[in-house]
Amino acid sequence: MSWRTARSPLDRLRTPRRFPGFLKTASVCVLVAGLLSPFSQTAAAATEATAANDHCTGQCSDILPPGENGNATLAQILLNQAFGTQPGHAEDQLGPYANLAGGYPSLTTDKINTFFNDASFGVAADQVASALKPAGRGDVTIVRDKKTGVPHITGTTRYGTEFGAGYAAAQDRLWLMDVFRHVGRGQLTSFAGGAPSNQGLEQQFWRNAPYTEAELQAQIDRAVATASARGQQALADVGAYLDGVNAYIDASDSGRYFPGEYVLTGHKDSITNAGTIEHFKVTDMVALASVIGSLFGSGGGGEVNNALSLLAAQQKYGVTEGTRVWESFRERNDPEAVLTLHDGERFPYATRPEDPQGEALPDAGSVTEEPLVFDRTGSAATAGARTTSRTAASSAVSSARRGMSNALVVSGAHTASGHPVAVFGPQTGYFAPQLLMLQEIQGPGLSARGASFAGLSMYVELGRGQDYAWSATTSGQDIIDTYAVELCQDDHHYLYRGTCTPMDQVERKNAWKPTVADGTAAGSYAMRVWRTKYGPVQYRATVGGKKVAYTTLRSSYLHEADSIIGFQMLNDPDYVKGPKDFQSAVQHINYTFNWFYADAAHTAYYNSGDNPVRAGGVDADFPVWARAAYEWRDWDPAYNTASYTPPSAHPNSVDQDYYISWNNKQAEDYAAAPWGEGSVHRGNLLDDRVKKLVAAGGVTRASLTRAMAEAGLTDLRAEDVAADLLKVINSAPVTDPTAAAAVEKLQGWLAAGARRTETSAGSKTYADADAIRVLDAWWPLLVKAEFEPGLGTGLYTAISRNLPIDEAPSAGHGPTGAHAGSSFQYGWWSYVDKDVRAVLGEPVRGPLAHKFCGGGNLAACRDLLVSTLKEAAGKSAAQVYPGDDQCSAGDQWCADAIVQRTLGGIKHGRISWQNRPTYQQVVEFTSHR
Predict the structure, then answer these.
(1) Which helix (H) or strand (E) holds 725?
(2) Residues 6 or more apart in contact with residue 73 via CB below 8 angstroms
(3) What is the C-alpha separation between 232 and 219, in angstroms, rounded?
(4) Cα separation of 146 and 44, whole Å?
(5) How far apart are CA 923 and CA 462, in angstroms?
(6) 37-41, 114-118, 578-582: the lowest-pLDDT one
(7) What gap in Å lies between CA 717 and CA 375, rounded to an integer?
(8) How much is the pLDDT for 225?
(9) Which band of pLDDT confidence, cut at 50, 70 and 90, is reported for residue 52?
(10) For residues 328 and 317, is the Cβ–Cβ distance under 8 A?
(11) Can you give the pTM of this predicted structure?
């Protein structure tokens, strides 16, 4: 949703130039004055928030742009739209975050909090901006600090503490929470408007989690029932949290300071206050969790696309050679891949079986995508709406999910202080308001500060405790499998263990009409999903002439709430007292994440997720028959439970010399569903820098932050691939003046560090702008010219669907489209690197099956590279950066720039590109309990 910057699935809700003509400047001022005067909240007397047991001694910092305050009244939205004014604490973390791009080279320890917040526990008396006892309760106080407005929640009872957490969440993110509970239920368009991007968003998520209300409730019931006392406590915590959320809804409704988006979308009347903001209920939490888990923690899928590219390879080369070629591009266990666990320990999972069993590869040309949307009317029937549906479907079934997030953790053996140092955090995109929110929560059994997803903040999900900190990155191990269910009787019956069984259909009907926020014309549609015991149907095909439906089954399906216990443990100072306790806690999180830990003496790592134990011989990369012999071990379809690999089989470690993660391969033999874990990965940008720091010794918070920041400004293609490309080109004199000039520019840029940075802070012009333009234009041209002739168009196209060619900062990709910051996760840089080195005659471990550049001939390869470089150099900036709703054609800086995609009525300015976590911590504990 976007207010005036409509772009892609998470960003539509336009508050447009569609405000009626009478809302001119003077009238806006009058209206605002009227809205503000009678309905302001009353501030409680400011009191000091006492610091809890804090072992960080001022050395814990964090940042989360744009700002803590994600709610805005109608008056504040109108002022922002008319004059650009910001509500308090709506963007006060955006500037410091952005400024690190220019300030990191001279960063010293004493300057860290110029670019980050002090993340110490408590608030000093002279820094208290407000103190509130929500709903008049005597057992909880919400103190907000002057600098950032972060809520510091302190309770004397468990119920009161969680009530305060819910109240504070609604204060800061009520509208966003409401949006995402509707996304999770597939009801966004009916709630927020029928913009094509809203349609795409609800379609993408509901396709993978098409739950009924009863199924949402059952997930809570089961999670509680199977977790004993902690489960009961979690349910009580959720109840108290929801009571706090709903108390704020009631207070803001009667006080008329609720988010103004409710008025602009037609749910409330600005004059009479008629209309309702629905209370939150426990099933809303499951709906919210299903969205977050699907976005960031569900590795796997893509088996049908894998099968299609394998068949294309076999058609091109024959079965044996085609399989060999395919496997070389798949890079399941590439010996040159950067690893998080680099000590040589192996953790075999989802590896290629020697004798695959049960594969159900489709007949050529038989695969069709299962339709989701039916009965389109009005604006839902336009060509644009249909295109949106196709894009959403592709995103829903792809294995190339945007992992994002990074971590740098160094053992105390290699730091200046002798204590571990960590710089880590999740990349969750850039939104206004942000998906995450900051808070400190102190109460019986709870002591933490950090970030949580809005609406799920009964616990801190990523942050710090009294003497430890933790964070996560998305991992890609495969917990989603595709089954070929054989049809019987008709297209909606299938064989389940020999019995012809009807599929179950679930339906969601949505309709919308124009509002002030979203002027999309009226329309409607129905979403229908056919479900089997093996999961929802995603494709139809034939296998050996038999009609089948391809379904997807993920281990976290029907278990969206299970991870609550792990987060509860992480917040409990009586549970987490060291690295083994930390690992035990995150073992209870069933989503696929890499977890990192640091305290004053130890570091640790654990890879979470319910990894199903597959039947012998099953290849997780391809569809298998839906038959008992190929099901997950001990699988119970009634509750989608199975046997899972034990914790010891998950990549895990304590006190390795250092850890890095940028969604790269975790350990040897631990296969991932996404492609691209080869010789060149963005994880190399971190690993190379941290390895040098560790070798030199004396690592500090400042030096580790500098390493992160520099990696986040570096072009991966330039740093790790371009030198070999230029080596080929320079193997003979470059006589063409255009190509020679391009070579000189590229060499100069590489010598300067291959970074995409401004000439000076705020210039909005890149240093080495011409070299950057040339590489951006050259990469897709050289990849196509290098590989398509040898692979053939069919196979080249098929592999491109498994792994995109490029992911430059200006490219549109991921859940937020362009201007998303996160870059260089998926691309063909490893293929180019291995192929060019092979043509140069250099050693390559895990080479591609053939040499492709110039058919393996160095001179022919050079000619190809020179010709494509010359073509790229001739492209103007306007051709390379064609412009969009944010930028004019040819504006290179703007094309890369990060945009806070609006999910409500408040908009913010663009900032210069950085490839770094959205929420980020810099921590170094000096003592331990």
Answers:
(1) helix 722-729
(2) 35, 36, 39, 257, 258, 259, 260
(3) 14
(4) 14
(5) 13
(6) 37-41
(7) 46
(8) 78
(9) low
(10) no
(11) 0.95
CA 688, CA 679: separation in Å to the nearest integer? 13
b/e string for 175-192 if b means 16 or more Cβ within 10 A? bbbbbbbbbbbbbbbbbb
Residue 45 clears pLDDT 60, i.e. is over it: no
Q: Range with the lowest mean pLDDT among 2-16, 90-104, 428-442, 497-511? A: 2-16
CA angle at 470 for the pair 590 and 220, rounded to the nearest 5°: 30
Q: Looking at residues 756-761, what average pLDDT do you find?
A: 97
Tell me how far apart the terminal alpha carbons of the chain are, to the nearest angstrom.
46
Number of Cβ atoms within 10 Å of the Cβ of 768 = 24
For residue 515, the one-letter residue type is: T
Indicate the residue type of 481: D
Specify which residues 463 forms β-bridges with.
Answer: 450, 470
* pLDDT tens figures, 430-467: 999 999 999 999 999 999 999 999 999 999 999 999 99
Contact 680, 829 (CB under 8 A): yes
SS3 call for 451: strand
- Under 8 Å CB-to-CB from 224, ≥6 apart: which residues? 231, 232, 234, 235
List CB contacts of 30: < 8 A, sequence separation 6 or more.
Answer: none
Element (H, E) at 254: helix 228-255
840 contacts 724 by C-beta, under 8 angstroms = yes
Structural tokens at position 375: 């009965």
> Mean per-residue pLDDT for 797-814?
87
Phi/psi-derived region of residue 847, left when phi > 0, alpha when psi is between -120 and 50, beta in every other case: beta
Q: Where are the beta strands (DSSP E) in 2-127?
A: 60-63, 117-118
Residue 848: CA atoms inside 13 Å, Cβ hemisphere, count? 24
Q: Which two tokens stand for residue 427?
A: 């990349």
Q: How far apart, in whole angstroms, are the C-alpha atoms of residue 457 and residue 444? A: 16
- The Cα–Cα gap between 475 and 608 comes to 8
Closest CA to 405 of 339, 479, 338, 471: 471
Q: What are the two backbone dihedrals, phi and then psi, of residue 596, each rounded to the nearest 5 degrees?
A: -125, 150
């003496």: which residue's tokens? 601
Q: Are 172 and 151 in contact (CB under 8 A)?
A: yes
Can you tell me the mean pLDDT for 645-658? Answer: 98
DSSP 8-state assignment for residue 390: H
Place of tokens 């202080």: 417
Overall average pLDDT of the 685-701 stretch: 98
Q: Cβ atoms within 10 A of the Cβ of 129, count?
A: 17
Task: Dump the DSSP string for 370-416.
Answer: PP-EEEEEEGGGSHHHHHHHHHHHHHHH-S------EEEEE-GGGBS
